[in-house]
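Look over this record as teaching material.
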Amino acid sequence: MTIKNALIKNAILEAALPSVPFEGWTKQVLENAAQECGYTKSMVHAVFPNAEHDAIVHFSDWADEKMMATLSDLRPETLRVRDRVREAVQSRLDVLASHKEAERLAVAFWMRPLRKWKGAKLVWKTADKIWRWAGDTSSDYNHYTKRALLSGVITSTTLYWLNDQSPNHHDTKGFLDRRIDNVMVIGKVAGKFKTA
């Protein structure tokens, strides 16, 4: 994807997000957003050939990008590995906080039986970005098990967060800590979450 295409996708997505909670992830919403950005409706087909499907995929990539930008202010080497992971997952949820209903609809989209595998791949992609930022360089079975475990943490915490009504999602932060604690007791693989 070229930088220009990425910028166009981001512009259309960000223009569409305020309408998604009310109208859903639809081609019409994307076309209206494109026009709001000064493009023609046909631009949606050019950058999101599969309309809402591609837009929701990009929404995940966009959230990852924002998460990584937030994490750039931190020095991961100064944190325990488990704290790096927690900071990263929490940063992504903070990015999505203003778009909670759009995320809820995106999760519902990926929960359909024929789409679950794609949704799982997106979560894996997020987990991989987090582990790479956290300093993981493993290439053996640990590479896969660590990402699988973190994918589970991301999925369960996101689902909890979607239903969290506590101030500033305080309860979600506690849930995330507990999930990481749970993972730490699964033996050697879970031990990778412990201090470096």
Observations:
- The chain has two domains: 1-49, 56-193.
- Residues 18 and 99 are 8 Å apart (CA to CA).
